TrEMBL record, chains A, B:
Protein's name according to its UniProt entry: Methyltransferase domain-containing protein
GO biological process: methylation
CDD domains linked to this entry: AdoMet_MTases
Alphabetized Pfam families for the sequence: Methyltransf_11
Listed GO MF terms: S-adenosylmethionine-dependent methyltransferase activity
TM segment ranges: none
Organism: Methanomicrobium antiquum
Amino acid sequence: MTLNEILYGDTIFKEGSLVLEAGCGVGAQTKAIAKNSPGARIISVDISLKSLSAARKKAADETNFPAEYLNCDIFSLPFLKNSFDYIFVCFVLEHLKNPRDALLELLKFLKPGGEIIVIEGDHGSAFFYPDSSDAKRNIECLVSLQAKAGGDALIGRRLYPLLKDADFSDVCVFPRIIYADSSNPALVRGFTKKTFTAMVEGVGFDVISSGIMTEKEWENGIRALYRTCEEDGTFCYTFFKATGKKI
Amino acid sequence: MTLNEILYGDTIFKEGSLVLEAGCGVGAQTKAIAKNSPGARIISVDISLKSLSAARKKAADETNFPAEYLNCDIFSLPFLKNSFDYIFVCFVLEHLKNPRDALLELLKFLKPGGEIIVIEGDHGSAFFYPDSSDAKRNIECLVSLQAKAGGDALIGRRLYPLLKDADFSDVCVFPRIIYADSSNPALVRGFTKKTFTAMVEGVGFDVISSGIMTEKEWENGIRALYRTCEEDGTFCYTFFKATGKKI
């Protein structure tokens, strides 16, 4: 299975339903979720015009792109209350200082009986072979940086209490583990190398310049992550999908 | 799903096949695997007479118990080479100094075309909400103690290279994540509390008496593990099931 299939394969919106994708970013997920639900109308919003223009640019390259992009803040949505059948929130709550407030706000826009679908990662779920305390330290730095910015890179494990606390009912959480070894080179390349390790590498400058780790320590950790992509290496990471209803 | 269903539900031995359960211990898994394969003949062996007599005692309480228990060492099995259709190894390799040698030895007793099924945990896969550095330290102590005794409590993540390195072909590894929150109280009680936390608690005396942690530190960690069993807590742990064939 591909990463998209593991994460979105069972997210299906009913024929004729109205869906809000809250915080679509550059539209990385939009097409994947739309693909499974050709009969749904999807409105994707993001607070960042820059991200949205990247999303729109990608959409413009396709005929009949299945979603509409709108620039708005999820804390001041221009929609009628009780109007969406589904709200889809993917890799958004991890960045927010106040994820519960965001969920309470989104709840207002769901129809009674409507469903929220939340997907988030959890960087504390990563483990790998060969194990490496250097790589673990790199990942901890990533978590610290996100915490400093007001986010929570360990949010996956707390989706259950978060949705319950935001007054959703019938809350269900489904872990989605990604396990990559050399029997699936596409997943090793696509996930371990180009998604996870690339993301960790991306904060190297911030970590080194903030003095938390030396350049040498940091690079040891990055090397250890690449090492897990070799013939005998393995890599695990868990995403969480949560669903909840509005009564 | 119950823990047994998650771990053994898809382990099915063909009608008429001969199965070796290598390292059955007190027979904790024997009945669960036999249940799915009433047409198979299962021979369960263990090196410890004490464990086996506990297994036999449990078996004696049942009519038509579906397996035969034998006392022997997996490094000197009294069977003909190339005689088993399946070899099932569950929570055994983690205790061995030489898991590769054990696998090479077991390989001899598989028929060509026969299959090995290995199930192991990985204590480094545990994470939970609320997070706790004390509880993480307790778990690290457990891993260190097992390493000192010659075992590897992080063996789950390396089943893939281990089976490949022991000359098995078609090696496939399937992670089995256990996720428990208060929507499933039976799993919280049965797994988080009575399996994982109880196992960690079980080594408390060794850890404290070896001076690695003070009694107070240790108890803080244990309290934090119990805390994850409350209404808003969550707990994750990943087991690994690996299969390999003899060419």
